[in-house]
Amino acid sequence: MSKVIVAPVGEFPPGERKLVEADGKRIVVFNLDGEYFALLDRCPHQGGSLCAGAISGHVESSSPGEYHYSRRGEMVRCPWHYWEFDIRTGKSWFDPKRVQVRQFKAAVEPGAALVEGPYQAETFPVRVEDHYVVVEA
Amino acid sequence: MFREYRPIDCDVHPMVPNMRALTPYMDAFWRDQVVERNITNLDSQSWPIRSPKTIRADWRGPNGRGAETVEQLQTQLLDRLGTEIAILNPLYGIQLVLNQDMAVAFARALNDWTRAEWLDRDQRLRASIVLPLQSIEASVAEIERLAPDRRFVQVLALVMGEDPLGKRQYWPVYEACVRHGLAFGIHAGSAYRHPQTSVGWTSWYLEEYAANQQGFQSQLASLMTEGALVKHSDLKVVLLESGVTWLPGFLWRLQKTWKGVRFEIPWVDRPPAEIIRDQVRLTVQPLDAPEEAVPRALGHLRSEEMLLWASDWPHWQYDGDAAVPPGIPDGLLPKLMRANALATYSRLSPPMAESQGRVA
């Protein structure tokens, strides 16, 4: 398992996503209003990049003609065939048990902890006084 | 030959000899209109009388027509095959009439003709209520008028009508079907409101007959996407003379595409193929597959409940008494010939003796 620093919290605003590579895997990290979720950047269907997919909400209906729209920004659609996945769980809507994207743990950690540990960000210096979004892959 | 299965034939076509056969079932105004306007016949060009497929050669009478009497049905079909129940689907061209009032009058006459000339003459017979879908309101009224007679087990529409059948304007018809335990039957044929294909008018009978399959696909997609099936989850839809083997490939495309754009139709909250397998049934004449390919084609359907046996009499789908398409495994016959029909048509149970209700 390896741990990768995605970005300083201040440079990763809500609604954005970032792509990182960890342990040979491409991982897309989403910021949903300050909560961070990381998914393998590979649609389980044919491998499309979820990082390049459209973000939308979830629509349900109790009767034809009714649209209950909620969770804006929490669904990602693969750019290739528009399969939709729940950013929070990686599960597809249409077959959540069998079709899902692998999920990774994303968290915010203080720079102090990261500087002292074995992990380093490769592309930018870690500042003790900042907080960072980190993914475990 | 099939007697042991106590077969239920889900697609039999009594043919109206001419308009004079229906006038006794019209009120005085329309009876006179038929005479004064010299409306001689409403045979539809979907089934040209002289086309070999419309009436099997050995089932034609001296006048070239056929399927005009109960006696013909008995001797050519029911008695030979040991049919226990046969469902009549009249195909006279009342859906083609443009004048709504005339269409309603003719549909009522046709349904009353079916009842008096056929249902009353053989206890094995059941029938569909032919709907004048030129008026949805009148169609519902016709269902209400005839539903007390439990020998009507289905309503009947043509696959190519005025609008896609899933649209909400048609839902009062589905509500009436559910209310009375009637299946919604869709038969091959066009009302000629639109070209018979989505790319335009056809030139040949052959082209048109084959095009019915596209019509069935479009109607299935409409019923599914518009939510007509999920909204009326007790409704059974029966595709008549639709062919069968096109269905799995079509369902594949429908379901695969749905995975990507299901947000368009959020009321469809489970895979479309599951909904269609639960609520849609198809008759097996024609089946559209060579004998050796039938088991594989049926495997693709992934359902033993969807298929209903039908002879399609007097249409020429088979020779002699070979009324079950070759290649269907013996193990499927109990369901195909009887059990599936009983599960589809709630009005076939309880058995005949208790279902002789009449309309006042």
Write the layout of secondary structure elements.
The complex is a heterodimer of chains A (137) and B (360).
Chain A: E1 3-8, E2 17-22, E3 25-32, E4 35-40, E5 54-60, E6 68-77, E7 84-86, E8 103-110, H1 111-116, E9 131-136
Antiparallel strand pairs in A: 1-9, 2-3, 3-4, 4-8, 5-6, 6-7, 8-9
Chain B: E1 8-12, H1 28-36, H2 70-81, E2 85-88, H3 100-117, E3 125-130, H4 136-146, E4 152-160, H5 171-180, E5 183-190, H6 205-225, H7 228-231, E6 237-240, H8 247-261, H9 272-279, E7 280-283, H10 294-301, E8 307-308, H11 333-344
Parallel strand pairs in B: 1-2, 2-3, 3-4, 4-5, 5-6, 6-7, 7-8
Helix pairs in contact in B: 4-5
What is the structure about, briefly put?
The complex is a heterodimer of chains A (137) and B (360). Chain A has one helix spanning 111-116, and strands spanning 3-8, 17-22, 25-32, 35-40, 54-60, 68-77, 84-86, 103-110, 131-136.
Looking at this protein, list some descriptive labels.
heterodimer; A: 137 residues; mainly beta; Rieske Iron-sulfur Protein; six-stranded antiparallel beta sheet; 9 strands; 4% helix; elongated; B: 360 residues; alpha/beta; TIM Barrel; eight-stranded parallel beta sheet; 8 strands; metal ion binding (chain A); metal-binding (chain A); Rieske_2Fe-2S_sf (chain A); iron-sulfur (chain A); 2Fe-2S (chain A)
Describe the protein.
Chain A is mainly beta. Chain A has one helix at 111-116; strands at residues 3-8, 17-22, 25-32, 35-40, 54-60, 68-77, 84-86, 103-110, 131-136. Chain A is elongated. Chain B has 360 residues and is α/β, with parallel strands linked by helices. Chain B is 36% helix and 12% strand. Chain B has eleven helices and eight strands. Chain B is globular, with a radius of gyration of 19 Å. Chain A binds chain B through residues 56, 59-68, 77, 81-84, 92-95, and chain B through 168, 226-228, 230-231, 258-263, 265-267, 269, 271. Chain B: Residues 8-345 form the Amidohydrolase-related domain. Chain B: It holds the Pfam family Amidohydro_2.
